[in-house]
Automatic annotation (TrEMBL):
Bilayer-crossing regions: 114-131
Protein name: Tol-pal system-associated acyl-CoA thioesterase
Keywords associated with the record: Hydrolase, Membrane, Transmembrane, Transmembrane helix
Top-level taxon: Bacteria
Lineage: Bacteria, Pseudomonadati, Pseudomonadota, Alphaproteobacteria, Hyphomicrobiales
Cited Pfam families: 4HBT_2
GO molecular function: fatty acyl-CoA hydrolase activity
UniProt keyword annotation of Acyltransferase present: no
Signal peptide as annotated in the record: none
Length: 157
């Protein structure tokens, strides 16, 4: 990947390996509360970055999806189950993993986790729905569903 100045930015969007996406993010002061522990709502930001860059690494640009056809296409979080196991702290390097559990019709279910130094901190199961530019449900294009399912199987057809 190359940044706008033409410089090389390896792994800026993470990488796909073994059927899942891995993204590394540092915890900054702005992510924490007064005690230096990551504020609970900030985990949603890390998870969103993981989902967005997962799609980007699969060749799916969300900006392009909005103009895919007259109806447009976007993803919206419908349901999320989170489990906070251990806290992340300022300066931790987080590894956010994302993988597709299911992709059908107008929804997909993603499993995500956040770890630091090999220690599991948070898990999430996220149901995402596909909507049009008017906020109504629509079907996911077959090729996109196939790409997500192929990645979920670790690239094994």
């Amino acid at each position: 990947m190359t940044d706008r100045s033409g410089g090389n930015v390896p792994d800026l969007s993470g990488r796909l390996e073994g059927g899942e996406h891995r993204l590394h993010q540092r915890v900054y002061y702005e992510d924490t509360d007064f005690s230096g522990i990551v504020y609970h709502a900030r985990y949603l930001h890390f998870l969103e970055r993981g989902r967005t860059d997962y799609l980007r690494c699969l060749g799916v640009e969300q900006r392009t999806l909005h103009t895919i056809d007259d109806e447009g296409l976007a993803f919206a979080v419908y349901h999320m189950d989170l489990k906070f196991i251990r806290p992340a702290r300022m300066d931790d390097i987080l590894e956010i993993t994302t993988r597709t559990k299911k992709a059908t019709g107008a929804r997909m279910v993603l499993e995500q986790s956040i770890s630091a130094a090999g220690v599991l901190l948070t898990t999430a199961t996220v149901t995402v729905v596909v909507i049009n530019k008017h906020g109504r449900a629509r079907r996911m294009p077959d090729d996109l569903a196939a790409t997500l399912l192929l990645e979920a199987s670790g690239g094994q057809a």
